[in-house]
Amino acid sequence: MAMTRWWRLLSLVVLVSCVWTCDPASAQQRRDPGTSCQSERLEDSSVEATLRLRQHKQSHPWVVSDMTVRVPRLWPLSKQLTFSVQSPQYRLAMRCLLLGDETPGSRNEWHPRDPVVTATDSFVEVHYIAYNWITSDKPFLVGPWEIVPTGRTWMVYLWPPTLQTVRWKRIEADLGGLGFSDLVERASSSTENELVWKDRLPQEVQVEVDPPWQRRLTATLTQSLWATAGIASWWVCASILIAVAALRARRTGTAAAHGTPPPPPVGDVAQQPAADVPDTGHSMSFTRTLLEWAVLSGAVALALLLLIPQQGVTPRSYAVLCIPAGLALVLVARPWVLGAPQTAPGASPDEPARSGGVRGIQRRQARAVTAAACAVAGIALLVIVAHGVFGLPENLEPGTTTAPGRIGLVLVGLATVWLWLAAMLAWAWRFAHEGGLLRERWTRQWNRVPAQCVAVVGCLLTAVAGILLAFAWQANAKQWGRVNWLAEQYDPAAYNAYQSKLLENFFFSDLKWIFTYSWVLSGIALLALLRYRNRPARTRGRRRFERFSPGPSKLDLLLIVSLFAFFVGLRAAKFAGASALYGVWLVLNIAAMYVVLGVGRRWSVLSRMGGSFYAKRLGTEPHRDELLEKAHHYLNVNHQMRLVDQGHAGGVTYEGLEKELEDLRNWLVTGCEGADPPEQISVLDIALAWGPDGHWWSNAVRAARLAFRFGLPATGLLLYYQAQDPYGRAQILFTPVGIPEFVADLILYQMAWAAAGFTLGALWRLLPGRRSQARTWLLTAAFGVPVVLAAAFIHVIDTDPRQLFLYAALLLCVLTLTSIWMDLTTFRKDWQYLPSRFALLLFVYQLRGLSIQIAWILVQTVAIAGIWVNLTHRAR
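Below the sequence we write its predicted structure tokens.
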């Protein structure tokens, strides 16, 4: 009987619980706890708030809110503020205190850490810091403050979700030196930079701020058509540059084919021997490929830039345009076209492939590429056509998605990104193949088993597209968690709609990112053309340069300068925040290089020695070996003279050593055919000015490899600062392409150092200076002219130029180390006779020269350290 009563009582409890649980009012109250926050019990709270506006030397004005609230213990939720930050009770109490009845997720403010909670016997203190950036003319919230940009002014209101009827103990507004006006005129005190209110209601705090024109200009340029026009001008200039180089190369090749040599370059390069004269058919094919890319890249860039600002364009419309465009780019690239005269599989290097065999290889490669690209495009178009099967609307813009719907959107996104990645890779392969930049092992594999190569590359591209989607998904989830950090529990429908929006836009957002970096293909095209024009001749199965070359020709010089402007110079525009001026910066960097080189080349060591000296002393490999022997003897004589001065003669007389130096001088004079060379130029200076290799291309490649290695620490410094800067860190972690952008910056920094080293090595014999640091200075000056203009532009728009100066200082340091190592490599045959590389350094530069080099590097290191400390201090 007792057991029966027990079960009846338990049933009654369960029934009451179910009724309470199913009660709509109670359920709504639990879902929206704002009605139970009991804000009226917060009347005895004490509040202090500070607003700081930082706009000087900032690309984006930074607004920081610092608020401290002391909540009385009488508030029922005060105890929950001391709970774990992961507990629902804590989030409920903090949400009631900071947001009141606002919906979680309605604010987009940032907070560096969770609020700091301190409890005493009488109150609980909450210290909450939030910040945001003014990047547009839309109103935004930060802590209890609301910032409303209204054309020429910014309105600042203290409008907290809670505690509106409480007199706040102290309120400060530090406006960073901007002009302001207290609209309500209730401030307790006012200075040039800040306003202070004491014991005031939030409604009594209303300030009108007059921002400088630079801040309005930045926001206007970012959101206007000027930025789009600037990027378009960059693509137009790049396309024109490639077209001009291709047309000039075609004209040179045509003249050579008809037996008419091109006009010789002016100056030192007039004696440049013809390298391997290209066959006319391949030359025409290569230049036609470059012209096709110049037209296509410019047209596609302009089309994308016209599509980006359009409003109301559905994801289906974007997909229908981008999928066929990506497929067309792959097919037009024709990576199956053999760039150079190929050999049949298994044939000897000098045995040309049969015509039928070459055509058969091309057909197999074309079928493999076409089949893979059409299959991927077909999958995406099938999802678009059969959208109902996946539960998607016709415009591919669902409010929420089911599992089949997400699969459909993912397939469309991955297929589109895959096609555009494949297009970029196909064009890169075509340029590198025709220019001779690829390893023969790769081309043989591509000729032998094209289907397997396409399968492997297709899988890799699928993995890359999947990684991009994973990064976008993770960043989107982090953004959701950041905005909804006070939600007691996520609304599944809202989260579904949020992620569905990502899948709708994934392919187009990443597509823009991919094509943004497709300018690298222009650099690859220029490098491939440069390599093709200077490839070694084939003699008896071995590849060698016919004769040594004193420097690049006019067309080669244009290609080298363009590479430097593409990979090194445009960083100045990026650091200056002047994307609207990319086209101007490209032309400016090329012009600066020509001006500086034109001024400096007449003072180069080889130019001052004259053309006859090159013909007699530098034209062939035996001549260069003799020059190195003379330079080595010159170093030994100077070393012995120092020993004689120190009293360690060892049977050697000073007069005998002077006679040996005079003989070396006579060797220079006889090479100049009677014309006396400058007194200060020695045989050592000529050996160092010639460089470690015979052809300037070999010098360029060697310097590029050295600069790539020396640039690794520099890249680490730049990326570390980028990750430490609050705005940069936010862009990396919370935007869909943030991490891919970070990786791309890493690669591009390394490419910049390599391109700078390549330029230094290619122009090594044309740059003035008896020592390497002088050549480095002149090349850095060519970059420095646009940097000075960029710094002036930065000063005008009132942003921070120190990152630009850091980049310039790092560039100078990397080039200095590269040039020193190039000098050491010139005497690499002496490595075996010396105990260490430092001993070789001391042998080449002697004691005084080495001291100068070390002091110069230390000065650069101190400058870099000073800029770095200032940058990191500002970032904190």
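The CA atoms of residues 192 and 203 lie 23 Å apart.
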